[in-house]
């Protein structure tokens, strides 16, 4: 029996296509360089001198080297000059020199191919009974989550290396706040937050205890349970620190995007719905608000069942996916709102008195564009985390996309591993070939036994609790950081 079957072939084909097509066709490059985003070009010294009403100094580089760099004063212009920045569409050559562009391109392209493999796997499971095969689509989803966390860690490391140290303090503060909130959430009963963590942990420890006894090991389950919860709280703190600046950036781009589209009320409604989508995701796992209200709606002294339990789980999955697609569709508005910070800074400068060095104007305008891919990662990475956590929850948690009521699924028992089939010894020159076949069959049997043991320990009950909690926690971190960002940009920055 094949371990992964046709899925493995498609997975290897997708990896090969991604490697070969990345230099020629990239969704990440298209997202930034499709002509819909416009950057602001920094003014030259000649343009600034013309606006200031004075002539450009005639000293060239050779004269400056002869006279000495210390004798040349920096060119300064009045702040209230009538400066209007020129715009130009973002092209591929501009994007290639941006900071963290390679990390951005790799993550987004991998997420696109992972989504394609997942969709193929879902269609494959609908046509073929592949319950005994390893779900390749789920593996790609888990890898996407890990790569996304690694990319966010790279961005956070950049803030930690900052000389000022303010960014480091913000990350640490959000990390400790997330640790406190996670420890409070983990002690909430399942009657209020229905992640299924308790059932998942109970199932995991029961399977581990059986597996350990088979291997001749013993340990204390209560101590292990407490240790696992502490490790999960530490992971939550780490994720909270990673999502601190993405939430703050989302708040700023949301306010600027709403202001940029004042004459388009429908776009404003979509922007507000996109900003509040993490709140909706958080409420979907609050049992008194979501399942109890929709599943058993109170009608006087009685309650009416609107949708079944399995249908509600499917509706919840569909809701999260639709909200993620909505936020992805509004990416251009948020990125353009960020690029408009150059002109906003120039407009604010013109209301001030005094003089400013021309090099400072050029640096400020250029710096906004240089961090475009960083802002794009901060906007897209949380969406990718929530989306692929939901897809992994569907695949590994044995859920369904169907909205019709279903019978509760039963996890099939893993059949005991079979011994390697015996091969009759050959004669003469066929001995080497037969020995190789026996080695391959023995390897297949050992790998089958390992995967069977793993599937016996990590069951869908455990995956449901783990990925439901991960999806909810990422959304909760976005809510905390983005709402704090709204308060910071609306009130603290204005005072």
TrEMBL record:
Chief location bin: membrane
Transmembrane segments: 137-157, 169-188, 226-245, 266-286, 368-393, 461-488
Membrane topology: Multi-pass membrane protein
Gene Ontology CC annotation, any one: membrane
Alphabetically ordered keywords of this record: Glycoprotein, Membrane, Signal, Transmembrane, Transmembrane helix
Listed InterPro entries: Transmembrane_161A/B
Residues spanning the signal sequence: 1-28
Cell compartment(s), UniProt: Membrane
Short name of any one Pfam family annotated for the protein: Tmemb_161AB
UniProt similarity note: Belongs to the TMEM161 family.
PANTHER family noted in UniProt: RE42071P (PTHR13624), TRANSMEMBRANE PROTEIN 161A (PTHR13624:SF4)
Protein name per UniProt: Transmembrane protein 161A
